Amino acid sequence: MNRWFLLLLLLSNSVWANCNVGKVDQVNGNAVLERYSQKFRLGTDMTVCNGDKYQTDATSVVVLKLRDGSVITVGKDSEFVVNSYHLYKSKPNEASFELIKGAFRSVTGLISARPHRYEIKTSMATIGIRGTDFWGGFGLTDGLDVVMLDGHGVYVRDNDGNTVELDKPGLGTTVLPGQLPSDPKAWGDEKKAKAIATITP
After folding, report:
1. Burial level of 133, CB count in 10 A (0-12/13-18/19+)?
2. pLDDT of residue 99
3. Which of 25, 56, 166, 180 is placed for a possible disulfide with 60 were both Cys, Cβ 3.0 to 4.6 Å?
4. Across the strands, what pairs with 126?
């Protein structure tokens, strides 16, 4: 086989694997995709690749549907990065994301049906899940807020390793600068409504 053809095939397979994450399911308003230092106006049915950064403005919301069925909603005025997403047969599945600013909602799919690590990193804490529907974001308080909406559990671990477990729907926690994550507490309807409003077109 021609070595240049082989090299092209290997590169094509590498790109395919890197971009075999999912697709953009919905775009409400104007949003931007940053990929390999290039910026594009975001449209539906575009592929989702590892390393992608999604940027929304004050009126736009983006919905990503990953290939295991997980759905991530990037809220208004947000920046969200898909760091690494891989499904395996013989080792734990892996999904790593980053919320730079704003808010998001995540509903996990089949990735959590077997051993997995599913985490969203922020400047203040890391949010990890065990198969659930949850919201996380900045702007409701002076720190990071996280609430479990449904499912099996969410953990929030701050940058010093202090961890809080949310094990019932409706429980939330807040991470403020220089403080431990707050004890789990049931969120009232008003606070939940404010959270949901950030990811609703």
Report:
1. middle
2. 98
3. 56
4. 121, 157
Q: Where are the domains of the chain?
A: 3-197
The whole-angstrom separation of Cα 64 and Cα 96 is: 14
Nearest C-alpha neighbor of 34 from the set 94, 73, 79 = 79
- What would the pLDDT profile of 103-137 be if each residue is shown by its tens digit? 999 998 887 767 778 999 999 999 998 778 999 99
Strand, helix or coil at 5?
A: helix
18 sits in which H/E element: helix 3-19
The model scores a pTM over 0.85: yes
pLDDT at 196: 97
DSSP-based three-state secondary structure for 187: coil
Q: How many helices (H) and strands (E) does the chain have?
A: 2, 18
CB atoms under 10 Å from CB of 58, counted, come to 9
